[in-house]
Each structure stands twice: as C-alpha cells, then as structure tokens.
Design brief:
By secondary structure, this protein is mostly helical. The protein has helices spanning 14-38, 46-83, 87-122, 126-149, 151-159, 163-187, 191-224, 236-265, 271-288, 290-308, 312-349, 353-385, 390-418, 422-448, 452-462.
Length: 464
C-alpha cells in the first residue's frame, strides 16, 4: 500500500476543495430564495403560482435526487479510477454515463407528458391547474435535458478536484437565472412560462462552461500518458448505479424526514405558528449547514482518488481536517451568529408575536443541529468515496425512519406533558435523533475502518 499522504504533489486538501463550494452553495441558496419569493409576486395570480410550484416540488425533488445520486456514483468511480491510473476504466465510465443520462432524460420527458395530460385531474382549481401544467411540463422536460447533460462534465471536474470550476458553473447558472427571469417576466411578459424557461435556459450557460473545463482536464490527463494501468468494469453502468441508487435514496429519505416532521407539527393546536417557527429553524439550519455540506461534497472525490491509489492514511487525515474545520466553524461563526442575531431574525421573518417567540427557540438550537449533523454527512460521503454506499443508506434509514421522526413525535408529546413550547420538544427530539444517528455511524466507522485496506483489495478484485 502507498505511504499515507495528505496532499500529494499537485493535489488540493479537503479545505481547498471545499472553499469554492461554500461560496457556490451559499450563493445558490440565496439566489433561489430571492427568485422563488420575488418573481411569483409579480404574476397576475401569485398564490396560484406558488401552489403550482408546490405541486411541482415532488417531481423536482425526484430530479434532484436522481442528479445527485448519479453524479456521486460517477464521481466516486472516476475518482477511484484516476487515483489508480486506470485510463481504460475512465473512458469506459464516460461512455456508460451517457447511457444512464439518456435513460434519465427519457424518464423525465415521460413525467412531463404525465403532467401535461393529467394536470387537470390532479388539481380542482383551473387557474392552478393551468399554471401547474405549464410550469411542470417546461421544468421537467427542459431541466430533465439540460440538468442531466451536466452530470458528466460536473463529475469529471469534481473527480479532477477542480471545485473552483464547479463554483463558477453554479454562480453562472444562478446569475443567468436571475437575469433571464427579469427579461422573460418584465420585458416579454411570459408569466409562469417565462419563470420555468429561465430556470431551464440558465443551466445551458453553466453546462457549456462545465463541458469546456471537463474537456481541458481530460486533455491534460491524456497528454501526461500516466493512466496506463489495465483494468475494466465487467458492467460499467451497474458500477455507476451501485453507488448512484443508494446515494439518491439517502437524499429522498431526508425529504421524507422533513415532510414527516411537518405532519407531526400539523396536529398541534397552534400549528400555524409552530409550522412558521419550524420553517425558520429549518431554513436557518440548512443555510448555515452549507459549509458542512460543501466539505462533505469535497470529501467524495478526495476519498475516491485516495482509495484508488490505496492511500488510507490520506483519507484519515482528510477526515481529521474536516472535523476540526467543521467544529471550528460552528464555535467561531454559527454560535455567535445565532445567539446574537437569531431572535431578531426569527421575529423579522414571522408575522405574529407567538410565531416569533416559537422561532426564537429554534434559532438557539441551530448550532447544535449543524454540529450533530456533521458526522452523518462526512461519513456518508467518505464511504461513497470508498465505493461502499450501503452504509450511508443504512444509516440514512436509521436516522430518518427509526430515530428522527419518532424522537420529534416523542419530544412534542413530552413538551405537552411538561407544559412547555412544542417547538422546544420538537427541536430536542430532532437533535437527539440526528445526534444518535451520527454517533452510531461514527462508532461503526471506528470499528470498520481498520478493514478499509481489505475493502480496497476486494474492490480491485471485483472490478477487474
């Protein structure tokens, strides 16, 4: 096995890879919030437009899950092949990815056709149905084409550890979306069709840029002539899907978790204020968790390439740096922000005094939510980089189905018994559930990680 190395010559560390992603993720989140709330308000029927967005959300989320899963699967396999200098596998994976992408495009064109023919049957309100039909069809068919085409270049770029290009592609897409929305809505007056078309066309600029950067990286790799080690996958499409499906399923489970918590909170007498308070907590936690998610995304290609060159020490070192940076971020940035400004933000974002008070409880829980989520995200990406996605899926099921949702329900029940705010009980249950899932994942990793060298040998034997 190669000697443990943190940063081999010419390669970046986990924080160098994560830095551009932090900027990209935060900017994307901010632009999405602005676009979602701003442009719907300028339409003739803003409430109907928001309802159409909501009806499209499950299909959109399915698309995101498929995109993320496929990208993670391809990035993990490409990174391992690059680390092992297996050039034939890299070319094989690129061709196999095109087959997977074409299949996904066909599936979402089918979903677009379903929405076109059955929108009226899914919604009673004719205005909402018409908007849902327009928005849903354009988004599913258009994004199903432009978004999935970007999976291949995006995965190649990340496998080459070029997260700076990933950042620029994301920012280019976000800014293009903002500009095109303004053009289509205020100049051409295309209404909700213009909003959907802007979202679709905005991805074209980032796709062109990503294709260019991927082509440059691959040209440089081939020019070096170092990837000469023999070896091919027996079934390359299945090799990608073996990681893509569990990775995408883990993403879907987290959506189930969020929806199930909302169903629990809907049953509380002051449900409107409680749901508003939970929404503030959830959005704040997701926004402040972006650096943690960025580090976890960076860990995937870094771990995959270290796995390919049999550098177990490099993986351990990257995890140590990731955890140290994450904890430092929580203590130095998240805790002061939430303690000093959390209650003010909660009151500003809510309508009633009761909702503001409820949301304030949640803002104090945000730092803990970010901290206890960290091991789950980091370790899931690490095992996907180790070409073993099943542990991440198992602990995702444990987290969402077995721990978080029942714990939130128990917390709400306990709060009623002790006559305290249901928000305190819900946050406590959420923190306990997520914390336990991260703890169990961490303990299992400590136990199994010494066998990582065996996993490397098994991978080489099974995919040669």
């Amino acid at each position: 096995m190669a000697q443990p190395t943190v940063n081999p010559p010419g390669e970046k560390g986990v924080l160098q890879l994560a830095g551009p992603l932090v900027v990209s993720f935060w900017m994307r989140a901010a632009l999405t919030m602005v676009i979602d709330t701003l442009y719907a308000g300028f339409l003739e029927h803003p409430d109907a437009a928001l309802a159409a967005f909501g009806l499209t959300a499950p299909f959109d989320f399915l698309m995101i899950a498929c995109w993320v899963g496929t990208s993670n699967g391809l990035t993990a396999r490409l990174g391992a092949a690059m680390g092992a200098k297996e050039g034939a596998k890299i070319e094989q994976l690129k061709k196999a990815a095109m087959h997977v992408i074409l299949a996904l495009i066909a599936i979402f064109w089918g979903i677009a056709a379903f929405i076109w023919f059955y929108a009226d049957d899914m919604v009673d309100d004719p205005v909402v149905a018409d908007m849902f039909q327009t928005y849903g069809v354009v988004l599913m068919a258009g994004m199903g084409t432009t978004a999935f085409w970007s999976v291949l270049p995006d995965s190649i770029i990340k496998a080459h550890h070029d997260t700076r290009s990933t950042m620029w592609a994301g920012l280019l897409s976000g800014v293009s979306n903002f500009v095109l929305n303004s053009l289509f809505l205020f100049v051409f007056h295309w209404g909700i069709f213009g909003i959907a078309l802007a979202t679709v066309m905005a991805r074209i600029s980032s796709l062109v840029y990503a294709l260019h950067r991927a082509r440059v990286h691959e040209h440089c790799r081939k020019e070096k002539g170092q990837d000469t080690k023999p070896g091919l996958f027996a079934k390359p499409r299945l090799a990608i899907l073996a990681i893509a499906l569990p990775s995408g399923a883990s993403f879907v489970l987290m959506a189930f978790e969020s929806q199930a918590i909302l169903e629990v909170l809907k049953r509380i007498p002051e449900s409107r204020e409680l749901l508003a308070g939970w929404s503030v907590f959830d959005r704040a936690a997701r926004f402040l968790m972006m650096p943690v998610i960025a580090i976890s995304v960076a860990l995937l290609p870094l771990t995959a390439r270290s796995f390919g060159r049999r550098d177990l020490g490099g993986i351990r070192s990257a995890l140590k740096v990731a955890f140290a940076a994450g904890l430092g971020y929580v203590l130095v940035f998240v805790v002061p922000i939430c303690l000093l400004f959390g209650p003010r933000v909660a009151v500003f974002l809510t309508e009633s005094e009761l909702a503001g008070d409820i949301a304030s409880y949640g803002m104090f829980a945000v730092p803990l939510a970010v901290a206890v989520s960290m091991p789950f995200f980091y370790l899931r990406s690490t095992f996907e980089g180790l070409q073993r996605p099943k542990p991440g899926l198992f602990f995702a099921v444990l987290r969402s189905v077995v721990l978080v949702v029942p714990m939130v329900q128990a917390g709400v029940w306990a709060a009623a018994q002790w006559q305290i705010s249901a928000m305190i009980g819900a946050c406590a249950g959420f923190l306990i559930g997520v914390g336990l899932s991260s703890l169990f994942f961490g303990l299992w990793t400590v136990r199994i990680f010494p066998r990582a060298s065996t996993l490397m040998n098994e991978y080489e034997a099974s995919n040669s």
